[in-house]
Structure formats: structure tokens, C-alpha cells
């Protein structure tokens, strides 16, 4: 687990890919984090591109939304080794924060780990069929 960076090539920025996520994507969640993912060919050599989003409906203040997004990105950065080492194929990830109150980092970290483990379980279940 030496690579704990979140370089530009791993950031989900493509509008087409984001639209594809909402149309074809499957999801797993561990409240308050929902992971929408889709197996797809990525334009870069990264195996996973990830993005985060916080609904404006729940947090009117951009400052609060940005803080939550920063917490989500940090938690993903530290825990992405779980997925990188245990999955094959290329995926687009979108983490959506569903909560209505400001989270603590510790809670985000716990739920990020749970949601990534659920993703791997779902992935392994589909491979075994």
C-alpha cells in the first residue's frame, strides 16, 4: 500500500463517463456514502477513476459541500488500496454523500471502507456466477 496519492489521471472528469454512471451504473452504499460504479474503458492508464459529489439540496453552503468532498477524497485516497489490489478491470466510481449533517472524518473513513468492501463483495459475487 505504498501508493496513497490521488493523481489527476485517477480523477473522474469526463462528462460522458459521468452520464454513463447515472444511466448504466450499479451502486452499493453504506449510509451516508453511496458508491455508483460502472465497468468501462478509461481514456487514461489508470484502473479506476473516481469522483465525489455532495447534493446542493442537502448543503446549501458551498463551503460545507467542499469540506465534505475534501473528506471523501482524502478517505478514498487512503483506502483505495483495498480496491486496487483486489479488482481487475477498469471502473469509474462516483461517491455521493447522502447525509444531512456535517460528518466527522472518522465516520467518513469507516463508511468509505465499508462501501469499498461491499463493492468488492458484489464484484466477486458477479465473477463467481
What is the total tally of β strands? 4
Low-confidence stretches: none
Residues in helices, as a percent range? 40-55%
Distance between the termini: 30 Å
Q: Average pLDDT value?
A: 92
> What structural class do the secondary elements suggest?
alpha+beta
What is the spatial order of strands in the main beta sheet? 1-2-4-3
Q: Rg from C-alpha positions?
A: 14 Å
Q: What is the overall silhouette? A: globular
What is the string of helix and strand elements? HEEEHHEH
The biggest beta sheet reads: 4 strands, mixed
The total of helices stands at 4
Describe the structure.
There is one protein chain. Helix 2 crosses helix 4. This protein has a 4-stranded mixed beta sheet with strand order 1-2-4-3, with helices on both faces. It is built from 4 helices and 4 strands, in the order H-E-E-E-H-H-E-H. The chain is 43% helix and 19% strand. By secondary structure, the chain is α+β, with helices and mostly antiparallel strands. The model has no long low-confidence stretch (mean pLDDT 92).
Amino acid at each position: 500500500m505504498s501508493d496513497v496519492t490521488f493523481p489527476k489521471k485517477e480523477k473522474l472528469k469526463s462528462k460522458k463517463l459521468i452520464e454513463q454512471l447515472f444511466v448504466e451504473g450499479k451502486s452499493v452504499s453504506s449510509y451516508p456514502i453511496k458508491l455508483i460504479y460502472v465497468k468501462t474503458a478509461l481514456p487514461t492508464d489508470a484502473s479506476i477513476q473516481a469522483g465525489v459529489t455532495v447534493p446542493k439540496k442537502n448543503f446549501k453552503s458551498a463551503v460545507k459541500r467542499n469540506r465534505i468532498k475534501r473528506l471523501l477524497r482524502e478517505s478514498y485516497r487512503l483506502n483505495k488500496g483495498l480496491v486496487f489490489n483486489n479488482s481487475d478491470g477498469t471502473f469509474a466510481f462516483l461517491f455521493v454523500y447522502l447525509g444531512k449533517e456535517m460528518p466527522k472524518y472518522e465516520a467518513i473513513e469507516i463508511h468509505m471502507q465499508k462501501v469499498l468492501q461491499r463493492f468488492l463483495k458484489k464484484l466477486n459475487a458477479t465473477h463467481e456466477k
